[in-house]
Specification:
three-stranded parallel beta sheet; single chain; 195 residues; 5 strands
């Protein structure tokens, strides 16, 4: 994670979203989940100096209230501490599922319709997007899928409607700066941006 975040920050990328823990991951054995949550807390705390030194703002999307109490509190503390940073916004997708996110947005709109606050004919793509967890985050221009899988895995399904998709056989732990740069250069060249 650190290598990718550093590369994005060095290149002036404004937003980087990493799929850190899906809602499907809750189906793993409890010992694995506990270990992942401890790792999350440790990693966020360990990287705090780096976030502050590099002007990185930490954000999170997903069903954050489902995280264990300590993990949630540590995450919120880190988000608060970095909220004034104006460089790269690092968004961690935690307990995240695009289907969950869309269903939650629909439920919110339905409750507003039931309360008479919204008429059904007023519902639009823009309204639905305004109730997603990414409401203040621009849609991604590029999605890089590691591990040789050719599927999106329930990640930002609404937001990637017009994103470029790149697939690499490289596993996430081995995904370094060189490969990140390679995909960015391909993306820039294909989109008419001088490299």
């Amino acid at each position: 994670m650190r290598v990718t975040v550093e590369a994005a920050s060095e290149l002036g990328i404004r937003f980087l979203t990493l799929y850190a823990f899906s809602t499907e991951n809750w189906n793993r054995p409890k010992y694995e989940i506990d270990a992942l949550m401890r790792l999350l807390v440790r990693s966020v705390n360990k990287e705090m100096k780096t976030f502050m030194a590099n002007n990185i703002r930490l954000l999170a999307i997903g069903d954050l209230k489902s995280l264990p109490g300590k993990s949630y509190r540590e995450l919120m503390t880190a988000i608060d501490k970095t909220s004034g940073n104006t460089g790269l916004s690092l968004i961690l997708a935690l307990s995240y599922s695009s289907k969950w996110e869309i269903v939650e947005a629909v439920k919110t709109i339905a409750s507003k319709v039931n309360a008479g606050e919204v008429l059904p004919e007023e519902i639009s793509p823009e309204m639905l997007a305004s109730f997603l967890t990414t409401v203040n985050i621009p849609d991604p221009e590029l999605l890089i899928r590691t591990s040789g899988e050719y599927r999106i895995s329930n990640f930002l399904l609404w937001q990637i409607a017009y994103s470029e998709l790149y697939f690499t056989p490289t596993l996430w732990p081995d995904f370094g700066k060189e490969e990140f740069y390679k995909h960015l250069l391909i993306f820039r060249a294909e989109n008419g941006v001088l490299v």
